[in-house]
Amino acid sequence: MAFMGIDDFLAMRTGQLLCCSVIRENSAQKAPECHQERDLANEGDVSHLDQLNKKFAYHRAHVTATNNKTGQKSVLRLSLPAVRRKYFAWKLSDLPEEAKAGLKSALVDCNQPPKVLQREADIMASYLENRRFPATLQEIRTARRQVISEIMETDMEIHQALRNPKSVRAIEKMIYQKAQGILSKQRYNWKAITFSSKEKAAIFALASFPGYFAEMHRWNWCGILAAHHMWGEKVKHYCLVEENPYMRHFCMDIMRGKSYEGSGEMINKNVYFRRALLQSAQTKYDLVIVHRTLIEMPGAEDRQKLLEHLWKRTNKYLVIVESSMYDSFKALMKLREYLLEAGHKFDYKYVKNVLDERNLLDLELSNFLAEKKISDYEKFCRIQELLGDDFVIPTKLEPGFVFAPCPHDQYCPKYSKASCSFKVRWLENRADFKTRSKPKDGTLTGKFSYVIFEKGERPKGERTISRILEKNKIPGCLMCTVCTEKNGLQDFHVSKRTKDLYKRLKYIEPGQLLPFDEEYVRTGPRMSQTTGLPEKSEVASENTVESEMMKRVAEMPSILQLIEDDLSNEDIEPVIDPSEEEPEEQ
User: Fold this and answer.
1) Do residues 225 and 18 lie in contact, with contact meaning Cβ atoms separated by under 8 Å?
2) Widest pairwise Cα distance in the chain
3) Rounded CA gap, 101 and 93, in Å?
4) pLDDT digits (tens, 9 = 90+) for 147-162
5) Where is pLDDT greater, at 584 or 532?
6) What CATH number was assigned to the domain covering residues 89-129+198-343+397-463?
7) Residues 6+ apart with CB under 8 A from 425
8) pTM listed for this prediction
9) Number of Cβ atoms within 10 Å of the Cβ of 103
10) Average pLDDT of 181-210?
11) Residue 405, preceding peptide bond in cis (omega within 30° of 0)
């Protein structure tokens, strides 16, 4: 979706170009049937509307939805909305002609032939595709201890050499160096990407330019080139932050487009470049994009400080895009959790004084605020209700909520399983005019994860539409996995007998919003993944089943406790000093 009222645009990157500012079953097997009682399509009596129908009748149908985590089955009513929702067609992404012309002219001025640059770009593309986030100090220490213990167990000569006191230190140093060599071949050899020449910047551009542009353009969130391609002169101010001078100047060359050899003017006169972010937060931007930048930060605290600074510079939307690797998704979700929690963390002493002045503080409220098991969000909502919406509670960061892709601000249901990623497809743009694609059609595919934050509180009473994460076609049916507002991940099937529902869902791609209005009309017993026994049931069960259920549940570890322990054990690395203010370059 495009926000046409955008006044300013800030994009940032650290070491990258653009983002600065089905399942097949046996054909003989029948498609799974939807929950049904009777078909109401040919009945004229509207008194039967409350009954369940599996076929399409009265602009709706009922399907059986299953919770992806608990196994709880529900009856889901899908109905066509009164106003049809508009969707942008996701076509094959391709670079704009101005970008192609600018890139071609910039490559001609390099000291190396374009074919040589393309050969090195293919190597870098494979490196970027498999690049992982830097490991924490705790992960490195744990891996080093494990490697050293394996070396000690397998090499018997080391045991004999350690018996000599004079050679102990030399042997220990040798073991340490050997362990470091093994770790360096794994994911523990992270280094920030640097560019020492214009040719290095050109290699990076050839390796990542079309794919990174496609990631942003698919969601209508884009770097400066894609933003200009969408909004043009409607954006009053573009600001691109790039520390490396070679990459900054190469990006300027691309921005000149077809006028590279002529006047040398950029395709948009409202584009400004900075070497670093200014510390002052007086100037705010309606849209701030951080694309493939977090992976260049050495530690979790550095990423957190960057997020805080960018959030202060954000007026409306903050977009963060990273790769589809699980560690990238994990880092993204930690920042998501931090921003949502910091938006509701307040000074208890200040709030208590305000409540005391207004004679609202009693013993019950004091105990409520002192209870550690109650979240900061619940306390924030309770205090806001007492003080009224006109009173602004000072928090650590300005409140915000997840605009996309999550339809909720709760814990991510995919966090413990796999990354929540989305596919994108683009046309190759190579200097040697060859192709790397397996079907030899000149197209490549990739995946990425993203999150968009919006400032302010989530609108009350406004229902959030579920988002389709997966869609697979099986004989006579479409199988979908959607992320819902209050019911986690739900799996359901839409058969061909639902007619209009099936036709509308057929042309929706994963990552888009569900094209129906949904309502859960009946909920069954909640099933445990490990035991298969109902955890909660609306119907009274036998005492033997209840006792077995309580016994099994008591033996299961607390997932929240495991996550809390994992986060508390993470080592924090030192923070990099922020850069000083510098003038703009145009």
Assistant:
1) yes
2) 98
3) 17
4) 888 887 777 777 667 6
5) 584
6) 3.40.50.150
7) 92, 93, 214, 443, 444, 445
8) 0.77
9) 24
10) 86
11) yes
